């Protein structure tokens, strides 16, 4: 579904991604993990086609560079880490922007578009927020609204940049479970960046560990979340043990005092 070959991105005179390969099958969930500045967001932006890059991005057998904006928006939905939100827009109208690729030029949204938005808001626990202005929301509420816009696109590929950072424990679980349900029910292909390594290991099929713009490990959660790899690339002292379903749980270990 997504094939990335030899992807390199140069920003500020520096290679921030350097020859990265990614293969994600239809219905697969890939979590991109790595330390701050590793290039995770850059990878998502390049796959989304909003950053100049070298190398090849193929989405559903089509070269990413050949897609027109509306075609791309029907194929890939992207929820950025820190989007600029128009503060006076209502939650409903902001989520409705996700339907733009389906609304005719100079046309209006259909009743079906409005039903889809109502459904997405309900699934994210946002029904009561529909008439609120996005500038008046908390960080976690805003994050769910950004996700609502992406889900409203009903694209077969979902790129989520740190979808849970501002969310409390329950909402983290709600959002990741929802993405997982959509993936299994509708066959969505998902790439998320995630700082929480335990969550990444619990939900994703495959992990890609980036460090310094390069791919340093790729595989099943237990193959990537090892003490050696996490210790080396995050410069962290951790204890890793098998959790639910044998998937690893990563604990930070306090140093000697
Ligand atoms: N517009 C830019 N100009 C110059 N350098 C940039 C630009 N955007 C990003 N970078 C640099 O590229 C590197 C990769 O950034 P990126 O946002 O992809 O990292 P990340 O892995 O997502 O980090 P984090 O975990 O902190 O979100 C960083 O060193 C960053 O400073």
Describe, in plain words, how this protein is organized in 3D.
Helix content is 33%, strand content 27%. With 257 residues, it is an alpha/beta fold. It has a domain at 83-155. Helix 6 (169-186) links the parallel strand 7 (157-161) and strand 8. The radius of gyration is 19 Å and the shape is globular. The protein starts with a strand and ends in a 5-residue tail after the last strand. It binds adenosine-5'-triphosphate. The site of adenosine-5'-triphosphate has 11 residues, from helix 1. Adenosine-5'-triphosphate binds at residues 11-12, 16, 34, 36-42.
For the biggest sheet, the summary is:
6 strands, mixed
Structural class: alpha/beta
What is the typical, i.e. mean, pLDDT?
93
Subunit organisation of the chains: single chain
Q: Low-confidence runs (pLDDT<50, min 5 residues)?
A: none
Distance between the termini: 49 Å
Q: Which ions and ligands are bound to the chains?
A: adenosine-5'-triphosphate
Biggest sheet strand order reads 6-7-8-3-9-10
Rg over CA atoms: 19 Å
According to DSSP, the number of beta strands is 12
Topology as a string of helices (H) and strands (E): EEEHEEHEHHHEHEHEEHHEE
List descriptors:
single chain; 257 residues; alpha/beta; six-stranded mixed sheet; four-stranded antiparallel sheet; 9 helices; 12 strands; globular; binds adenosine-5'-triphosphate
